Amino acid sequence: MADFKVTSMAAVFQENAKRLGEKAYAAYKKDGTWVDISWNSMNSMVHNLAYYLLSIGIEKGDKVGLFSPNRWEWHLAALAINSIGAVDVPIYATNSAEETEYILSNSDSKACFVGTEEHLKKVLKVRSKLPLVKQVVVFDESNVSGDDELTLSKALAIGAQNTNESLFNERLTSIQPNDLSTLIYTSGTTGNPKGVMLTHNNFVSNVRNTLIEMRDPKTKQDLLTENDLYLSFLPLSHSLERTAGFHGALWMGAKTAFAEDISKLMENFTEVRPTIIVCVPRIYEKIHAGILSKVSSASSLKKKIFNFALRQAVRNLPYVCRDLPRTGFFAFKYRLANKLVFSKLKAALGMDRLRYAISGGAPLSVSDAEFFIGMGFKILEGFGLTETSPIMTFNRPWFIKPGTVGQAIPETEIKIADDGEILIRGPQVMAGYYKNEEATKEAIMSDGFFRTGDIGIIDEDGCLKITGRIKDIIVTAGGKNISPQNIENSLKESRFIEQVGIIGDKRKYLSALVVPAFPELEAWAKEQNISFKNREELVANEAVQKLFRAEIDRFTSHYARVEQIRKFTLLTTEWTQDTGELTPTQKVKRRVVSKKYAKEIDAMYAGDSGE
Fold first, then answer.
1. Exposed, middle or buried: residue 143 (CB in 10 Å: 0-12, 13-18, 19+)?
2. Domains of the chain by range and CATH?
3. 390 preceded by a cis bond (ω within 30 of 0)
4. For residues 571-598, b (16+ Cβ closer than 10 Å) or e, as one string?
5. Which of 346, 420, 535, 567 suits 324 as a labelling partner, its CA being 20 to 30 A distant?
6. What pLDDT, in 10s, does the model give residues 462-517?
7. pTM (2 d.p.)
């Protein structure tokens, strides 16, 4: 593990590269085969790319765009940029040309790395509006035509011919803790995104303080080591993958394998068999739903065996959460369940070597927690925001408390304001919003506490529980304040509900837009001898409507009368990032959903008094 005195992740890389040499830094898939890149090879490329950037006049503090999907070249570019004291500006790979233009323009970027020819075309489309961008470098081998466009291989070759190691070292060692490392633009749903200024100390302190807590409390041994293997698939443009994945692996000297893309994720899992992943609950939901769908069409004997195993998983939850050995007859039953079901599932999913799964971005549902943690997976759910680098809290491997996001990491103060808002102060809090002093003052209080915008409580164990988000609070026509997130999480406990959005702001009662878990629903319809030509016909079926009415009532029965769902609409299309309803980290964009389905929402309230 890295020396705690380092001032930048670029310096951590240099130290580990000297130590690890020919050990694999990364792996990527090329022509159907996984190819390793050693620390030495990576370091050679980091130097040559940094030399190239120096040759085109990139100064300390200059901004350089990074517009690409996850790939090893993303790491390379970020390390080269940071090594010479420049600031990387990540752009989500799915952003439009116009969104990219705004970020490159607002950040004053002097150059930009792009992943593919498609990303290059988006930048070239708006190039005339970006006078400061002097060079565009594309990772893929492309037929670039302009004098100020070139491929990565060409940039590396130019760098190799313009070596300047003394300047490289001078820039690297001159980095101060409070110098900027990155500008990450928030994916806002209203107005233009804000550039979050994160310093080198934000990242270094966040990684250090998180990994300090990943030590066995009894033996004091590191639980994460250079022998671990990460699978990178969450967007590197987001701070969760940046810190917990990229920087975490870098600090430990672990290897990172880059998934081809999200559509091939499960295939890559079985090929790579990672020991560590950084994930969001949406991935667990999809895997869980897929497994349940297959079981629903299995023979009665297989269903009985699976249900037996599920009961053992639920019973196993406290043993995994407190890192306790199973005893007595239950230990035998669990071993049997593991032999018959769990071990086979893990192998089929490529998760048989998985030791820890870091989960963030949204709450993990109780049913998903019981299923995965009960099978023996150590899912460490945490909480953070881009503005906090992002980690504030997380569940420790020996103290997992489902339904919470764990305890604060060292040097981090968390308190709950009078209105329930979670406030945080610590070395991971951003320097502010770029060129936006007003928004910075609004977010960071005079005493240094950052307003998270989330609502929560701290329980008797010091664990933080998120109960909602201030901007998502629904105020009904009757003046009742309701947090939709809790109700939505409860509804997603149903095996028939894939996605859900609660509606009700300034309305007399709550309603819901529901995306069914179609594999489950279609299997159920088949069992019920319900015929249908398409999804529209299926969701309109009276028996299906009754099923969802019963499911909604069942999973919200413990809520107050004002929090009950009076009406619902079943949708036929899943919400995705591509269709605009989800952010890159799979959170629902409520305003987008409300606007897109305004007709369906209005229909649920049309001509109804609400009584």
1. exposed
2. 9-256 (3.40.50.980), 280-469 (3.40.50.12780), 473-605 (3.30.300.30)
3. yes
4. beeebebeeebbbbbbbbbbebbeebbe
5. 346
6. 999 998 889 888 988 888 889 898 899 899 989 899 999 999 998 999 999 999 99
7. 0.89
